[in-house]
Every structure is written in structure tokens, then in C-alpha cells.
Design a protein that fits this description.
This protein is mainly alpha-helical. It has helices spanning 7-14, 16-28, 31-36, 42-49, 53-65, 81-86, 97-102, 105-109, 114-120; strands at 69-71, 77-79. Helix 4 (42-49) crosses helix 5.
Length: 138
């Protein structure tokens, strides 16, 4: 175990919500499938996703920084191997639908105040939460 103090671990963890929000937004826009179909310019991506070129460029740049896209010359993008296998809707290994569940408001809200959950010793979700028989979230 490396026990060197690392403030990056703190910042990465505190900002993890930005990464998951960007990924979920890109999945909802079908951005990865759009790029996989050959739309690699920011203008073409924006046109197919229904976004503005500025906002699509910002999202694509962020997704490049965190490893889901690769930025090519100019404002052109291609999928990383992970995105190509798991985030292109036409891939047999598509995992995009997982985002709707894992990042659902119901589950995200259940983690809003972990300190309070620890104090109470129970979930903030109705009943027994995700372990409730016939839980509606499933």
C-alpha cells in the first residue's frame, strides 16, 4: 500500500459527480453512437445530438480529458476503445442503459447525506430501500 499523502484523491472523489453527470448526459444525447457513425466534427455531432456547437465542444473536450473520447486535429473526436465497446448503442456490449439506473434521482438522493445515514443507521429511501421486496426501483 502506498501511503504517500495525495490531495488528488480528495479532489477526484469530490468532483466525481461531474464525471458521472457528463457521461450520463453524453449517453442521453446518444453522443457516442453519433460519433461511431462517422460524425466526428463538433458541428456534425451537435447537429445530430441537438446541442449547440459550443456546449458539445465543451462536453467532448471534457470526455476527452477523462478518457471516453480522443480529440483529433481541430474540433474532431473519435471514441476511445472503452466507449466504442460499451457506449455505442449499436455495440452488442452496450452499457448505456445502466446509467439510467445507477445515476437515477432515487439512488443519487439516497447518498446526499451519508453522515445523516450513518447517524440514523438506516436508508433515507422509503421502507428498506433497494433491499425492499418488489422495490419499484428495480
Amino acid at each position: 500500500m502506498n501511503d504517500t499523502p495525495d490531495p488528488d484523491l480528495i479532489f477526484a472523489t469530490l468532483n466525481a459527480h461531474q464525471r458521472s453527470a457528463a457521461l450520463r448526459g453524453a449517453i442521453e444525447l446518444d453522443l457516442f453512437t453519433v460519433i461511431a457513425r462517422g460524425n466526428d466534427s463538433v458541428e456534425s455531432i451537435a447537429s445530430h445530438c441537438g446541442g449547440t456547437t459550443r456546449s458539445v465542444r465543451i462536453l467532448c473536450d471534457f470526455l476527452s480529458v477523462i478518457g471516453f473520447l480522443e480529440k483529433m486535429e481541430g474540433s474532431r473526436y473519435r471514441l476511445s476503445s472503452t466507449a466504442a465497446v460499451f457506449l455505442d448503442r449499436e455495440s452488442p456490449s452496450y452499457m448505456g442503459s445502466v446509467a439510467r439506473f445507477v445515476n437515477s434521482s432515487l439512488l443519487l438522493d439516497a447518498f446526499r447525506d451519508v453522515a445523516d445515514l450513518v447517524r440514523k443507521g438506516t436508508t433515507s429511501m422509503p421502507g428498506a430501500g433497494a433491499i425492499e421486496p418488489d422495490w419499484s426501483g428495480w
